[in-house]
Amino acid sequence: MTIVRPEDWQPQGVDYLEPRAWEALRLTDQSVLVTAGAGAGKTEFLAQKATYLLQTNLCPNPKRILAISFKRDAARNLKARIDKRCPPEQARRFNSFTFDAFAKSLVDRFRSAIPDPFSPPIDYQIVMPTRRDYENFLDRKNVQSINSQQLELEIASTRLPIMGNNDISNLVGEYWHEQYDSYEEVYLSFAMINRLVEWLLRENPLIQCALRLTYPIIFLDEFQDTTSAQFELLSTAFGVSDPVYTAVGDDKQCIMGWAGAMPDAFERFQETFSAENTSLLSNWRSHEDLVKIQHVIASRIDPNVEIPNARATRSVDGDVAAIWDFDSNEQEAEGLANWINREVRSSDLEPHDIAILVRMYANNVEEQLAQAFSRAGLRLRNETRKVGDIQIQDLLSEDLTEIFLPILRLGATERSPEDWIDALQFLQYLGAIDPYDDLGQQQSQKKLERLVRDLRLLMDKCNPEVKAAGHVVQTIMEFITESSLRQAIPEYQRQKDFDRVWNGFTKLFGECADRTKTWSQTLDEFIGLGQVPLMTIHKSKGLEFHTMVFYGLDNQTWWSLKPSRPEELNTFFVAFSRAEQRAFFTLCRERGEPVNWIERLLEPAGVRRVESQTLIAGSN
């Protein structure tokens, strides 16, 4: 393995790093906070810095880099970039988790070391409590002094063991005991798992020591969304002086205050870890006209924000941002569907290039739009819809999905070199084949050849439908084996966690097979090609689309979008910044009135209101 001298290292896979990114990348003996706006390439910066540290041996074997993100697809995306840039023996030393997955991995590995009475059984159940769940608990306890959101935040922030002797701490203690003792199974939320891990580490200095020896370098993505409990867990696990932290984020995209995100996250990071601060100025996602509008919103959030350098090229004519004004819900649905249909027919755009974002309740919006879209020859893809116990968007970022899709592509197509490389790498990973083991490499290729041959025979013999889809995926599972998957992937070591993903995968694959005529079409359907994605703003964070349409910019749908609620303006900014070329908003008079202060804010930047008659006429 060749080691590159730090002064000779060059960026991998990109042509340009702005000077400030170079400075932050080379800062390896001190923690650094990188603030960067929408489209600045925060994930790419982390990938470049990790590659630099690994390829120059500044992170020497057997030391590892720990990267923590907030979303599964962000963690997967970052890991994939490292895998492409570094040889396997280096890439294996980059571990990418979400906060929840990292905490859960420690509970699953060391649960017996958690003090009684909170040491969970191996078959504990993961739950995602809703507001109604907390309200029901408060009703059962006849408590009216706090609301469900306050209870949720108290559970997430209260240290174990619960030492207080007041009404709040007693109530939190009762909640914990109910989750352990009142049902046939133990039910844990990720907030509770966080508290268990923080207690586990405080009580076990040897585990702390092992973590600190393993991970001298820690990356933190989307740091503006970090909660006090997560920050406390980091400090307990790794201390404030041992590791070198690199955090990236954008305070203008802080939209998780309702979930306990620290309002002063950046200040606390700098103070706690004596971190240097630098800002990136490039915007690689959006063209200049969109960036100018984004800057108007950003300046309302932070008057001192610097103007980004737009790096993308405008490729569309006409409006790049507007508010579409409709009289009725029916007119809104028909107008939106017909406009997207016209764009798809008259340009190189595909339906999946145009995303519809909503503030919340994507399932309700799907019902409101589905018929109009069907009449226009379009299909919606509700990314928040659950298949079994997992949402579609989460399923697509799962390791199991990443492993199965290239193998299925090889069975459905005559030739696919990229899928062959991906499938072979996954098999070698599952089999723990050393990259320098020539015999092991050859045996892996022969095994994959046999699997693909058998898979093609099976898929050639049967047309896509639910039962056939089950046989196809089961053939792959019998070859890979469930035990190999669960042994290699920590998140699947518990049977319930594996079953949740496997059942969701087989259910969605069967649904897609039942709607298509060829297996290639089934796979396109599975990943959402040819469908208009529908998701909430929170689910869209970190993603980008050629054209973004926000459904419901009115004072009833988005009643909380007020000047007195800065986090809602941050959410508006996140929605707007998903767009590469165009960003539109729909206003429906039947549903609510305009959000006038937003229109006044955007009007000087050229964002105008477009009457429905104009839009409909253009669609005919």
What does this structure look like?
With 620 residues, this protein is α/β, with parallel strands linked by helices. The chain has four domains: 6-103 and 199-280, P-loop containing nucleotide triphosphate hydrolases (Rossmann fold, 3-Layer(aba) Sandwich); 129-188, no CATH class; 289-379 and 532-619, P-loop containing nucleotide triphosphate hydrolases (Rossmann fold, 3-Layer(aba) Sandwich), CATH 3.40.50.300; 392-527. 51% of the residues lie in helices and 13% in strands. The chain contains 27 helices and 19 strands. The strands form five sheets. A seven-stranded parallel sheet has the order 13-16-12-17-18-11-19. The mean pLDDT is 92.
Layout of secondary structure:
Layout: H1 19-26, E1 32-36, H2 42-55, E2 65-69, H3 72-85, H4 88-91, E3 94-98, H5 99-110, E4 125-126, H6 131-140, H7 148-157, H8 167-181, E5 187-188, H9 190-203, H10 205-214, E6 217-220, H11 228-238, E7 244-249, H12 265-273, E8 276-280, E9 282-283, H13 288-301, E10 309-310, E11 321-326, H14 329-346, E12 354-358, H15 362-375, E13 380-382, E14 386-387, E15 390-391, H16 392-396, H17 399-412, H18 417-430, H19 438-461, H20 466-480, H21 482-488, H22 495-514, H23 519-527, E16 532-536, H24 537-540, E17 545-551, H25 566-576, E18 579-588, H26 596-602, E19 608-611, H27 612-619
Parallel strand pairs: 1-7, 1-8, 2-3, 2-6, 4-5, 6-7, 9-10, 11-18, 11-19, 12-16, 12-17, 13-16, 17-18
Antiparallel strand pairs: 14-15
Helix pairs in contact: 1-2, 2-3, 5-9, 6-7, 9-11, 13-25, 14-15, 14-27, 17-18, 17-19, 18-19, 19-20, 20-22, 22-23
